[in-house]
Amino acid sequence: MEGQYGWGTLEDGWRKGPWTPQEDKLLTEHVKLHGEGRWNCVSRLTGLKRSGKSCRLRWVNYLRPDLKRGKITPHEETIILELHAKWGNRWSTIARSLPGRTDNEVKNYWRTHFKKGKPTKNIERARARFFKQQQEQKQKQQQQLLLQQQQQQQCQLEVPQFEEIVIAQEMQEMTYIYNMPYMFQGEEFTGNSTASSDEKSSDDEAYYATWENLWNLDDLGLDMGDEALPFYY
DNA sequence: AAGGAGACCAACCGCGTCTCT
DNA sequence: TAGAGACGCGGTTGGTCTCCT
Question: Which residue positions does the secretion signal occupy (predicted)?
Answer without folding.
Answer: none
